[in-house]
Design goal:
By secondary structure, the chain is α+β, with helices and mostly antiparallel strands. Helices cover 25% and strands 34% of the residues.
Length: 594
């Protein structure tokens, strides 16, 4: 039992951790070459297409070394994107060690630093690996120097190529030699950490756990400590590529539990499972509720698809517990749902999954963050700009902030500083990793980075900069509500909360953009932007004009004037009662505010 090693793979996006996981599975004989395919642990079609890991995966590998010693290696493949940092932190809490992968062509990047800090805070032993050494652009010396200076790891990095299978044996040997074996405490009451869950139609929610103390057996009565829900363990087992049932999971093991759970709300990542009859006195530390940081409205393109969207969100919620949604109504878009996400990538993935897996056509309103507004001495939380109170009643507005870590080559430092300044960033520190690379730390409003920031960052650095962030305490903001009125009627889907200094610029941008997108009607349409009950920008969409004088081929001028006056009166009435059709492209204009 002392030969169990629980470890995960952490890395920046696209540094090759899923490919390394493939090679480890091959090397340990967990999967045959006939069954092998690229990114085998990334089961979701979207993960394979984009080349990113969205959900953590666990797999058990049985390995016998050259001396005939047998080991159980439990590998957890973690997501790389900053949106899923909590999931990564829970996976790290289930391990004793981590393989830290760094791309030899890219060097140390922002999430490399962030993930290393997470691993160190969890007291994990780190096995560093320099990957992709086979590529012609690989610079192993510079990468080695960066790792020494910025990561402070005490194990010599292993040179490897996951694609070519170079160095895989050395990595496995280093895991066995350097990562401590799992601590075995079988006599204590059951204490197991939930670090992942997924949904199966016939068996309900399947929970992935790491057992720290005690034993969990089939038929045992178990309790989830955060939700206080109690169930019977119908099946326990461990993960190979498929699920393998076994009699029990003991202290040190990683495996799954099936308990006929139909309500995903009973399962919370980071919660502790214990024996319902003899509960543990030591629930696992670090559990917290995951709150959504970014909100957006999801609306079907046609009202007949509303029920389909509702069903799709219910089903998706079963496999994604961090998704939050509730119904809302918009004057312009009809019935839909306000959804909460962990970040902009999470929003993108949920939208794409809804469209692909459920065949829906969706409109997404501009993403926004959660503000705390003080009115009449009381704080209210607002996740929808349209619900913002009038400016006269607002005493304070607190907006969420992040601490951003940006790593970029010195050649692009000036462009990077300008970009951060434009996004209302406040510089905290600037350090040089070596003579070519610098590390910037900024405090920035979350609202400034959820739309377009990552693309702008890659654009100004020609793709070389990397970015990571952590949430910090909210700060006071000088913000205003900008409303767009079309034909004197406010359209809630176009309402945005912006900084006072940017209000005029964005108001002109939106009105000009909408003038070009909204088609001409039979009556004149004013497009106005309003801030603090003052119109700050206006554009006019001219009316389409019917030639009412075509039938007049002679006669007195008064006859023509009479027809023109009649037409003018008709257009005035039409403007009063007419309905403006807003095309879907108009809502995308708000998403592109930069």
């Amino acid at each position: 039992m002392s030969n169990i090693r629980n470890f995960c793979i952490i890395a920046h996006i696209d540094h090759g951790k899923s490919t390394l996981a493939d090679r480890l599975l091959e090397y340990t004989g967990t999967i045959s070459l006939r069954e092998m395919r690229d990114q085998i642990l990334d089961g979701m079609e979207l993960e394979r297409e984009r080349g990113i890991t969205i959900k953590a995966k666990a797999v058990r590998m049985n390995y016998t070394d050259k001396n005939g010693e047998k080991y159980v290696l439990n590998l957890i493949d973690t997501p790389g994107h900053v949106d899923f940092t909590y999931e990564v932190s829970r996976a790290l809490a289930a391990c004793e060690g981590a393989i830290l992968v760094v791309d030899a062509t890219q060097g140390v990047e922002a999430q490399t630093l962030a993930n290393t800090m997470l691993a160190k805070n969890a007291n994990l032993k780190i096995v560093p690996v320099i990957n992709k050494i086979d590529l012609p652009t690989a610079d192993t010396d510079s990468t080695y120097e960066q790792m020494n200076e910025s990561l402070d790891v005490d194990v010599e990095p292993i040179l490897a190529s996951a694609k070519e299978g170079i160095g895989i044996g050395e990595i496995v040997d280093s895991v066995i030699a350097n990562i401590p074996s799992a601590k075995i405490v079988r006599e204590e009451p059951l204490s197991a950490l939930i670090f992942d869950s997924f949904y199966e139609s016939y068996r309900g929610v399947i929970v992935i756990i790491r057992v720290f103390d005690g034993i969990i057996r089939k038929g045992m009565k178990i309790r989830f400590m955060a939700s206080e829900a109690e169930y019977e363990a119908l099946e326990v087992g461990y993960m190979k590529i498929t699920m393998v049932e076994c009699d029990e999971l003991a202290s040190g093991d990683v495996g799954y539990v099936v308990a006929g759970i139909k309500d995903i709300r009973d399962i919370k990542i980071g919660d502790t499972i214990t024996d319902a009859i003899n509960p543990t006195k030591n629930p696992h530390e670090g559990y917290k509720e995951v709150n959504p940081f970014v909100f957006a409205g999801l609306y079907p393109n046609s009202t007949s698809e509303y029920d389909g969207l509702k069903t799709a969100l219910e089903k998706l919620k079963l496999s994604d517990s961090s998704l939050v949604y509730f119904p809302e109504t918009s004057i312009a878009l009809g019935f839909g749902f306000r959804c909460g996400f962990l970040g902009s990538l999470h929003l993108e993935i949920v939208k794409e999954r809804l469209e692909r897996e459920f065949g829906l056509n969706l409109l997404v309103t501009a993403p926004n963050v959660v503000y705390k507004v003080k009115t009449e001495g009381n704080f209210i939380t607002i996740d929808n700009p349209a619900k913002f109170p009038d400016n006269a009643n607002i005493e304070e507005i607190w907006e969420p902030y992040i601490e951003a870590t940006i790593i970029c080559p010195l050649d692009y430092l000036g462009s990077m500083l300008t970009l951060c300044q434009q996004r209302r960033g406040k510089q905290i520190s600037m350090k040089y990793m070596n003579t070519k690379i610098t590390v910037l730390k900024y405090h920035m409003p979350l609202a400034e980075i959820i739309v377009g920031f990552y693309d702008a960052l890659k654009s100004v650095s020609k793709g070389y900069a990397s970015f990571d962030y952590v949430h910090i305490d909210p700060q006071l903001g000088d913000l205003v509500k900008l409303e767009v009125m079309i034909n004197s009627e406010a359209v809630d889907a176009f309402t945005v909360i912006i900084h006072k200094d940017k209000a005029q610029t964005i108001a002109h941008y939106l009105t000009e953009k909408l003038r070009g997108i909204i088609p001409r009607h039979m009556f004149e349409i004013p497009v106005q932007a309003k801030v603090n009950n003052k119109i700050v920008a206006r554009e006019t969409i001219p009316a389409m004009r019917k030639d009412v004088l075509a039938k007049c081929y002679g006669g007195d001028i008064s006859r023509k004037r009479k027809l023109l006056e009649k037409q003018k009166e008709g257009k005035r009435k039409m403007r009063q009662f007419g309905r403006v059709e807003i095309p879907p492209e108009a809502f995308i204009a708000v998403l592109k505010i930069d």
